[in-house]
Amino acid sequence: MLVEVKGLTAGYGKKTVIRDIHLTVDDNEIVAIIGPNGTGKSTLLKALYGAIKPTNGEFYYCGRNITGRNPGMNAHDGISYISQGANVFPDLTMEQNLLMGGYTIKDKSKVNERIQQVYELFPALKGRKGSRARSLSGGERQQLAFGMGLVCSPKLIFSDEPSIGLAPAIVKTLMRTIKQVKEEMGTSVLIVEQNAKEVLRIADRVYVMKIGKITNEGPAEKFNTPEELKKVYLVEE
Ligand SMILES: Nc1ncnc2c1ncn2[C@@H]1O[C@H](COP(=O)(O)OP(=O)(O)OP(=O)(O)O)[C@@H](O)[C@H]1O
Ligand SMILES: [Mg+2]
Description:
- This protein folds into two domains: 1-78 and 156-165 and 187-237, P-loop containing nucleotide triphosphate hydrolases (Rossmann fold, 3-Layer(aba) Sandwich), CATH 3.40.50; 83-153, no CATH class.
- It contains nine helices and ten strands.
- By secondary structure, the chain is an alpha/beta fold.
């Protein structure tokens, strides 16, 4: 078991947003979290990555309790976090951004090797090595953000809404690439997605989150019908 989350509770200041979350991610597994807006999906990833401190519960990674550890330590330990809204350094070039993705790795030849792999996965990036990130299209920037998350050879990727704002054809390519990353690099991915239909094509398992709680879970096939998907986005008062 790569990830085991037990009873995680977190929020902002006095406001609790997610409560008593239990979930697991296996080695070489893509696990999706889907659910309505504002239910705490991003908050969950932030609490796991260490951007905010959980108020209760535990996060075990490779059998070790690393709850509330700082993001730098997590990056060093093979966990990548690709936040919602494609955070890149706008004034750096594409290639400089990718190099930043490998800042925790001392062996720079490994970093360069990994950057070449990123170009193979995202051919659209290859021709724009020298372009400043600010001049990239939304889709290219999203792919760059994902590529940056791959340069440190992560064992685990937390990806928050990678498809947001992308054209349908690019969403399909990105999803295929995420699956390829799992298959070729053995990386596990915990992915939050609004685009349930597309993420269900690549996910092994799914958790449904509503108003800060996990309300349903199961293999991706279980949710892949119009009736089930409708239930995912229905918020009962
Ligand atoms: N920095 C913050 N400070 C205070 N409250 C916040 C902060 N970030 C998010 N929240 C609140 O926490 C709740 C959950 O937000 P979160 O971003 O985790 O939801 P989400 O499920 O990721 O939504 P979306 O699908 O729109 O991305 C919301 O009520 C939001 O207003
Ligand atoms: Mg979010």
